[in-house]
Fold this sequence. Notes:
Blueprint: H1 6-25, H2 32-45, H3 47-54, H4 60-69, E1 71-72, H5 74-95, H6 99-118, E2 120-121
Helix pairs in contact: 1-2, 2-3, 5-6
Amino acid sequence: MRRIPRFLWVAGGTICVGIGIVGIFLPLLPTTPFLLLAAFLYARGSERSYARLLGNRWFGGYLRRYREHRTMTRRHKAFTLALLWIGIGTSAGFLVPQGWARLLLAVVAVGVTIHILSLGTE
Length: 122
């Protein structure tokens, strides 16, 4: 890993932040894993980018709590679950005609819900 140039770590982190931001608006694209991966990549490529990500006013605190304590605030949990179920419900109800795909969406939603509820609450 030492042979990977710093700019590739930073470029990968930046791409992951972009995908994570898109994931805020697309219900089936997860946000947290991409932001956590961005933090990992930035930590190896640029202390400045890493600090900026963890200091970000929108998701810096969220990332720090998740990485350090595996917790979320009650408000974040409620907001995340509401958006998850609204997004997946809308997709299943209006965009996905196949029964197997609707079932898959439901399984994903239940899995994500279980994961979120298993996290500690601040």
